[in-house]
Amino acid sequence: MVTRVGNDIYFDDLADPKFGLLQGLVRKLGNLAKVNFSIENILNDARKATGLTDFGPDEFLEPLGVLLAAYKSDPLMSPIGATQVYNDLVRCASNRLIIQDRRNKTPDIGSIEIKNPLSIAGLPRSGTTHLVNLLAADSRFQKLPLWEAQEPFNAPGKDKAASGLRFRSRMLNRLLNNGDSDIDDPRYYRCSLRWSGMKMMGPELAAMHPMNPDHIHEELELMTFDFGCNQFEWTAMVPEYRDYYFRKEQTPHYEYMRDVLKLMQIERGNPRPWVLKCVQNPEQLPALKHIMPDATVIFTHRDPVAVIQSCATMIAWGHRMLRTKVDPRMVLDYWTDRFETLLRACVRDRDIWGPQQSLDVLFHEYMADQIGTVQKIYDLYGWGFTDKSKSEIGEFLEHHKRGKSGRVRYKLMEHFGISADEIRERFEFYFDKFPVQKEVE
Asked: Which residues lie below 8 Å from residue 207, measured CB to CB, with a gap of 6+?
């Protein structure tokens, strides 16, 4: 269970979950589900959902097959976890069909440009999410809210929400105090239902990582439709897929993502520059440079120990529903290895982006002066801080104060059996490159 002391949140049962009434009911009902992981099942369900049949080039079948094999080989994935990842795969395959339909109808996509994007790259929990949402408040930018990141387009003839979908979404929004929206789009309602489901399974998620439909998200979601990115590592334990990802050149998946952004730009009729962010980018900087050579890249940096304890706590907390057994230390060890690999690639390739196109933002400095950080970014980007942009960003800060939904208090040694120094010694190479402030003792 969870203990709240004022605005502070303490997880008391990370390794041995105790369920409240609602979570227990969700778990009992969810565990009745049965999932048959097969490529044909996924592709057939996507065809039924969209009314389309052309998936485009079949290279995506290889990573999809590796992913399915990883899911099937996991003996601890719960029926709820299996249902969640299966539904996500059907959503990804459905999006692939819709996008291919768009590509077939857009022969001149090669002439469309993504001009001067502002791209944020950094570890998760290092300020990337808050920073992209802060910058996206400036209406001069084009941005990617979660509901569009997860479903960029409606299938042909399916742009009206059924009354049942609309009712379920609004009912749960009121039950969970999510707030209402005037966006009448089936994609928005489906995203809202996913967010409500996450909150029912883990009410503290809002304090750790909001996933409401309007939340500005990352273009990594667009790569999931090509089944090539590290997003799948966040929703299940798939070391086999991770190793496959390491072996494969990722540039084609970045090209796919870029083309989806182009199609979205055409759909919106909007030439404004994009503000983007992706926590995978630090280990794929050459691929990013290939697809967006004129991007301005903002690198966020934070004590890896703070990042690891936060991510490991969040993921282990989610495992109470997604897995039949929770092993916090296994989660921490996996993500310590994972982030070391990512940061070594970042240190190796950081200088691909020169000082005219990049800026390093240290988390402690950013938190101490958010407006000053935005000013530095705009100075580099060549934008002025207009009265309107000051007002828009100021309003965002007023309504999105840090810790608004509660502040998680972490217990590194108690929950994971390891000290901060033991983790930190693996990241001396990172501290040597970037003067981040140590946060965890």
From this structure: 9, 403, 405, 406, 407, 408
Same domain, yes or no: 190 and 281: no
Cβ burial of 329 (10 Å; 0-12, 13-18, 19+) is middle
d(CA 431, CA 438): 9
Sheet with strand 407-408: strands edge to edge:
2-5, 8-11, 407-408
pLDDT, tens digit (0-9, with 9 covering 90-100), for 235-280:
999 999 999 999 999 999 999 999 999 999 999 998 899 999 999 9
> What CATH code is carried by the domain that includes residue 336?
3.40.50.300
Q: Is residue 179 part of a domain?
A: yes
Same domain as 261, residue 139 = yes
d(CA 221, CA 232): 10
How many other CB atoms are found less than 10 A from the CB of residue 349? Answer: 16
Q: 3-state DSSP: the chain helix, strand, coil percent, rounded to 5? A: 60, 10, 35
Task: Considering only CA atoms, give the Rg of the chain.
Answer: 21
Tell me: the pLDDT tens digits for 170-195? 998 888 888 878 899 999 999 999 99
Strands (E), 253-387: 275-278, 296-301, 358-362
Whole-model pTM: value is 0.95
- Judge whether 424 and 305 are in contact, CB under 8 Å: yes
Q: What is the pLDDT of residue 413?
A: 95
Provide the domain count of the chain. 2
One domain for residues 352 and 376: yes
Determine the structural domain holding residue 334 and report its residue range.
2-19+115-144+216-433
- Of the candidates 94, 117, 96, 104, which has an alpha carbon nearest to the alpha carbon of residue 44? 94
d(CA 188, CA 61): 28
Using DSSP's 3-state secondary structure scheme, residue 299 falls into strand
Q: Which residues contact 73 (CB under 8 A, 6 or more apart)?
A: 240
Spatial CB neighbours of 365, under 8 Å, sequence gap ≥ 6: 373
Cα–Cα distance, 266 to 254 (Å, whole number)? 19
Residues 119 and 190 in one domain: no
